[in-house]
Amino acid sequence: MALLELQGIAKHFGAIEALKGVDLSIDAGEVVGLMGDNGAGKSTLVRVIAGNFRPSEGQIRIAGKAKHFHNPVDARSEGIEVVYQDLALCDNLTAAANVFLGREIKRQVGPFRVLDYPAMYSRVAELFNELKSETRPRDLVKQMSGGQRQAVAIARTRLSNARIVLMDEPTAAISVRQVAEVLDLIRRLRDQGIAVMLISHRMPDVFSVCDRVVVMRRGTKVADKNVHETSPEEVTGLITGAIHTA
Amino acid sequence: MTTVPSRPLQSSVAIEDVTSLKERSFGQRLLSSQPFWVTVALLIICVVMAWDQPEAFATADNFYNITRNFAFIGIMAVGMTAVILTGGIDLSVGSIMGLVGVVCGLVLHAEHYWAVAIAAGLLAGAAAGAVNGFLIAYVGLPAFVVTLGMLSVARSLAVVLSENRMIYEFGPWGETFNAIGGGSILGVANPAWALLVLALIFGFIFNFTAWGNYLYAIGSNETAARLTGVPVRRIKMQAYIVSGLTAALASVLTVGWQGSAINALGQGYELRVIASTVIGGADLMGGQGGAYGAVVGAALIEVIRNSLLMAGVDANWQGAFVGLFIVLAVLLQRIRGKRSA
Question: Is A56 part of any domain?
Fold first, then answer.
């Protein structure tokens, strides 16, 4: 049984049809590359899975059970974590506060529920150690480099026991060395049995780390192939529409 | 543990050592914090004035007056800080003061119990804040426009309710009500105690609760806050309710101190309140500021006003000095921002 199953997902914004009946399934421990041109519906699909948008039509099933997400917290409680394209970080907060945003560790002090800073700092420091990132939990995010910001966003997904991690362009704005680190991290997630969906424009990244590649064009899925059965040339053709379907 | 053979030299430092580092030491943090420098400025002015005018400035009476006078603005500035942290603004606090004052006056005039008057006043303030918050957070209108509208509506309601008359016959419970706003404990005016308690509570809330943390998160990146599941709309609405409540509290204390309610109460206060928070280090773009800053900003404005009076400077110069300090504060903020970026 697939871990995540999408059936006939459609999303309209007024007259605009961002997604038209997308079917997709991901197994545990599988890395799926989601490719497509700008406006193909990749980010919309991610936001539907993450609970930011409710689908106009269709069904989301997790481990066989139909789920309805009203907000990101619902999706998160089902083990779905997202690294957003713009990383969704608050510049004026520390790395630790960003990682824990929306699910802070609290401590009971008398009648009050108080933020437990020591616990959060040490947990985040552990996560950065795991990620082998030289990022300090107490630093403000606005003072960080692109790679460190990426580490903060990824550390956020590692906080809970995520079953599915969606990554929206994680390698778009970072240096070559950091790309290799992020790809390593994706492999580490996969080895732990986590399903990863990698949205990317970068063909080499997708072909080096993914098991399967899904291509979207104008809101529909036009291809869903094992990476060994396709080639960058074919995928490029599918993205641009030079090849109709595969 | 596997090690990569050709690791660059910098990695001889273990990651554990780096991740456990504090960003800056306490001293560095202090030196780069605006409330600290405003406190220094405040102390310098006080020392100079105490040296120059020992009989007039450095007296218990004068300090009693100064602390009471800035307490009203300070109380509102603490509530305003919650709004400004989210990147919003509340222009209606002065008018809410007027409305709340009239409501308290009318309830007391109708010979109701003093606590009923206070509860009615606070309720009126909270209701006005809730209307602001609903229109801003749920309908999505700009804070500036909504609270500008409330500035006009609340003032107009105050005039209508009071039938444009001063209310001073407070009925049987008037004395108790007046004692709350006008009295003192241990030689310090009650409003100043109220400000101290409020600042401690909100200092705690801003720094140690998830709610406070969300205010900073919303002001620093509202989209990110929403994407990570922060209940952005609810928190924003609550921030405006807090601002309405602090304006109501300031009004209750002012009316008690003056012993009468006029519908013009609080006219023009919104700008003094906003000036206090900005001088105290709040960023009007959101995500920066604190309770102590708001209080010390309000104190600075009042001490400048008081000092100019004592030094015999024409009272009409006050506005120029306060304006100068506002611009200086923002300039200081800009310089600090550049250095830390």
Answer: no
On chain A, the residues whose CB falls within 8 A of the CB of B18 are 134-136
Cα angle: B79, vertex B84, B86; to 5 degrees: 110
Of A71, A90, A128, the CB nearest to B224: A90
A159: number of Cβ within 10 Å:
17
Query: What is the Cα–Cα distance from B194 to B185, expressed in whole angstroms?
Result: 11
Q: Which residues contact residue B136 at a Cβ distance below 8 angstroms, ignoring those fewer than 6 apart?
A: B88, B142, B143, B146, B147, B236, B237, B240
Q: Given pLDDT bands bounded at 50, 70 and 90, which one contains residue A90?
A: confident
User: What is the residue whose two structure tokens read 């809330």?
Assistant: B205
Complex-level ipTM: 0.74
User: A113–B217: do the CB atoms touch at under 8 Å?
Assistant: no
Q: How far apart are CA B243 and CA B154, in angstroms?
A: 14
- Our CA-based measurement puts residue A49 at a distance from the nearest CA of chain B, in whole angstroms, of 13
Listed in sequence order, the residues at least 6 apart from A37 whose beta carbon sits closer than 8 Å to its beta carbon are A217, A239, A240
% chain B with pLDDT above 90 = 32
pLDDT tens per residue across span B91-111: 999 999 999 999 988 888 887
Residue B222 clears pLDDT 80, i.e. is over it: yes
Distance CA B230, CA B210 (A): 10
| DSSP code at position B13 | S
A179-188: long-range contacts at Cβ-Cβ below 8 A with a sequence spacing of 24 or more?
A179/A205, A181/A131, A181/A132, A181/A133, A181/A147, A182/A150, A182/A154, A183/A208, A183/A209, A185/A131, A185/A154, A186/A31, A187/A31
Boundaries of every domain in chain B:
49-340
A interface residues, B as partner, C-beta within 8 Å = 50, 52, 71-73, 76, 82, 84, 86-94, 97, 101-104, 106, 112-115, 125, 128-129, 132-140, 142-143, 156
CB pair distance less than 8 Å for A136 and B227:
no
User: How many structural domains comprise chain A?
Assistant: 1
> For B15, which residue in chain A has the nearest alpha carbon?
A134
C-alpha torsion sign, points A157, A163, A169, A172: positive
Q: Residue B22 pLDDT > 70, yes or no?
A: no
Q: Is residue A198 part of a domain?
A: no
Q: How far apart are CA B91 and CA B307, in angstroms?
A: 28
Q: Does residue B258 surpass a pLDDT of 90?
A: no
Amino acid letter for position B156: S
Using the Cβ of B341 and the Cβ atoms of chain A, whether some distance falls under 8 Å is answered with yes
pLDDT at B2 (0 to 100): 43
Residue A114 lies in a domain: yes
Structural domain boundaries, residue A134: 89-160
Tell me the CATH number for domain B49-340: 1.10.3470
Residue B24: which of A120, A123, A97, A94 has the closest Cα?
Answer: A94
